């Protein structure tokens, strides 16, 4: 594929896919180790009612109100999960399940009851996003990367997800030590003066921001997959957290690239006429990677798991 | 109930508190309807090795965790070296129960010990050769030097416990609080741990251990604290570790013959 075709049609969706995948996979490493992986799932589901409510209130499909609505819903969900967990004294997984299915169902109902037929807001869009449409029409080739006028026409989603990714990286870099210590041994972390409650909440908020930004660009399927699959696959490749993070970035990036290419060309190679959803294919590739590492990864045995009674 | 707890706290305040490495007043903790720890006072003797003993579910670990702010107490005041504990974190090292963490966590032995240097390193302080040398030295003191690069999941229970002890040594604290360090460890590890704890005591440090093996209390410790939700007894072993206090703490759970034997051992 030449630059004239690749840069306007494929470069930006690819970059957005990669950034979204990595932005979710990074906090996903800690969520998986804290056995909170489901929270990514929860957040990406509750985002839907948030967006619908934002649309109902403002009457327009525009990014900022929707991002705010989604973020608000995510925070509400986190608070509700904590409240149900503490008041009901049940395990976090069950509390998450109750909250996110209820809120997602509410979102679907709201969506069906409202007249959104005139605007691009539907369940399918929420699930799969619209990665293929995030093209860069102002570009004519690689030279456009240096052309200020063409750069001004970049899809806004690219800037948002890039900024989100930078924020996620900054958070993890800055709080690396307390995150690692409190994920391993929360009680000890408290006695070291680490405010584990605040840090744990901050991690979930960062994950929520990544989920909302990624949802905006690529839909919830990728978000759900990327919080869990690359970190879980990475865990089976190494026994060191630092290397696990590196592997997860590699797996997220690979999923995004391979998934995007397969979605666009795979069906043609197989003789089918149409391309398939890039988001669906990216999520599928990440699942395949997880399956392969689960079968062949060098560190797939849970050596330190407590003995079964 | 809460008023009673706090008035106890005030009534017991005296100069001894100012010197005690750990002073607890009116500590009450509850996980549900029933308190796990009720209105407990404890004044740890500086430079001593104290065993916290009591039957299962008596609130031994809970008292320690609440004193350290790991679980939130309903009421009570805690001071370390005469100041609020929050200001004395650097002087207090805590060794949690081995089973409280997931040893499948992707990290190496040396990395766990380096966690003990977090207060020294801060968020972004550079990890230097001297930090690693210190961590290796701490591993050496517990006989685990050769395991520095192992993944923690590959260790036996006793080895894991020694790594936790090495992490607390790296903190260079003045007060060491250990929660059941001898639970489920091999004899060699028990010996190694008690040797390290005695060396800490010889260096003027204060050691408090949640302990479950009554038979070794008189060999290992010079002070005891008996608890069964409420405080039962506190003081030097020969005064507080007697047939009467054990009977009071354990009730019918210890056979009389066993208590006689223990109190003979206690002298």
TrEMBL record, chain A:
Pfam families: ABC-3
SUPFAM superfamilies: ABC transporter involved in vitamin B12 uptake, BtuC
Top-level taxonomic group: Bacteria
Membrane topology label: Multi-pass membrane protein
GO cellular component terms, semicolon-separated: ATP-binding cassette (ABC) transporter complex
Keywords (A to Z) from UniProt: Cell membrane, Membrane, Transmembrane, Transmembrane helix, Transport
Residues passing through the membrane, by range: 6-26, 38-57, 63-81, 93-111, 158-176, 197-215, 221-238, 245-263, 275-296
Family, per entry: Belongs to the ABC-3 integral membrane protein family.
Protein name stated in the entry: Manganese transport system membrane protein MntB
From TrEMBL, chain B:
Protein name listed in UniProt: High-affinity zinc uptake system ATP-binding protein ZnuC
GO MF annotations, alphabetized: ATP binding; ATP hydrolysis activity
Record keywords, A-Z: ATP-binding, Hydrolase, Ion transport, Nucleotide-binding, Transport, Zinc, Zinc transport
GO biological process, one term: zinc ion transport
CDD domains with a match to the protein in the record: ABC_Metallic_Cations
SUPFAM superfamilies given in the database record: P-loop containing nucleoside triphosphate hydrolases
Family as reported in the entry's similarity comment: Belongs to the ABC transporter superfamily.
Protein's organism: Falsiruegeria mediterranea M17
Domain ABC transporter, residue spans: 22-254
Signal sequence annotation: none
Residue stretches in coiled coil: none
Listed EC numbers: 3.6.3.-
Domain of life of the source: Bacteria
């Amino acid at each position: 594929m030449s630059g004239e075709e690749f840069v306007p049609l494929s470069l930006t969706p690819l970059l957005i896919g990669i950034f979204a995948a990595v932005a979710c996979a990074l906090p996903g490493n800690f969520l998986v180790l804290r056995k909170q992986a489901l929270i990514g799932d929860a957040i990406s589901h509750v985002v839907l009612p948030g967006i619908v409510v934002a649309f109902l209130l403002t009457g327009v499909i525009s990014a900022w109100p929707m991002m705010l609505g989604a973020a608000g819903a995510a925070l509400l969900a986190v608070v509700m999960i904590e409240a149900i967990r503490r008041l009901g004294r049940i395990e976090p997984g069950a509390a998450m399940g109750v909250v996110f299915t209820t809120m997602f169902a509410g979102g679907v109902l709201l969506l069906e009851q409202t007249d959104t037929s005139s605007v691009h807001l539907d369940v399918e869009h929420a699930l799969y996003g619209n990665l293929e449409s995030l093209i860069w029409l102002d570009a004519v080739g690689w030279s456009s990367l240096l052309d200020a006028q063409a750069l001004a026409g970049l899809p806004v989603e690219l800037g948002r997800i890039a900024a989100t990714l930078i924020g996620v990286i900054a958070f993890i870099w800055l709080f690396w030590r307390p995150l690692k210590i409190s994920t391993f041994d929360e009680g000890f972390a408290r006695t070291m003066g680490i405010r584990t409650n605040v840090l744990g909440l901050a991690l979930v908020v960062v994950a929520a921001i990544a989920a909302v930004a990624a949802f905006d660009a690529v839909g919830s399927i990728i978000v759900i997959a990327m919080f869990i699959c690359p970190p879980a696959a990475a865990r089976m490749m190494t026994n060191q957290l630092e290397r696990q993070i590196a592997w997860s970035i590699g797996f997220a990036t690979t999923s995004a690239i391979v998934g995007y290419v397969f979605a666009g060309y795979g069906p043609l190679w197989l003789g089918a006429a149409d391309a398939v959803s890039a988001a669906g294919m990216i999520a599928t590739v990440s699942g395949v990677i997880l399956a392969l590492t689960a079968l062949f990864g060098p560190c797939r045995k849970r050596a330190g798991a407590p003995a079964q009674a | 109930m809460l008023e009673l707890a706090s008035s106890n706290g005030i009534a017991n305040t005296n100069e001894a508190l100012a010197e005690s490495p750990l002073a607890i007043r009116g500590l009450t903790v509850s996980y549900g309807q029933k308190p796990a720890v009720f209105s407990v006072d404890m004044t740890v003797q500086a430079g001593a090795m104290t065993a916290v003993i009591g039957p299962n579910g008596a609130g031994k670990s809970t008292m320690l965790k609440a004193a350290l702010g790991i679980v939130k107490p309903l009421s009570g005041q805690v001071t370390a070296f005469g100041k609020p504990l929050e200001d004395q974190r650097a002087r207090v090292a805590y060794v949690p129960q081995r089973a409280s963490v997931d040893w499948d966590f992707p990290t190496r032995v040396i990395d766990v010990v380096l966690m003990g240097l977090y207060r020294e390193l801060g968020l972004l302080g550079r990890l230097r050769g001297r930090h690693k040398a210190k961590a290796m030295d701490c591993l050496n003191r517990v006989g685990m030097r050769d395991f520095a690069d192992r993944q923690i999941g590959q260790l036996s229970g006793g080895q894991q416990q020694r790594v936790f002890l090495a992490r607390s040594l790296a903190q260079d604290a003045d007060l060491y609080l250990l929660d059941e360090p001898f639970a489920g460890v091999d004899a060699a590890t028990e010996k190694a741990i008690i040797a390290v704890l005695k060396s800490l005591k010889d260096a003027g440090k204060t050691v408090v251990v949640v302990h479950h093996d009554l038979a070794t209390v008189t060999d290992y410790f010079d002070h005891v604290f008996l608890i069964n939700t409420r405080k039962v007894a506190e003081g030097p072993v020969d005064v507080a570790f007697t047939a009467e206090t054990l009977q009071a703490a354990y009730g019918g759970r210890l056979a009389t013959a066993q208590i006689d034997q223990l109190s003979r051992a206690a002298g």
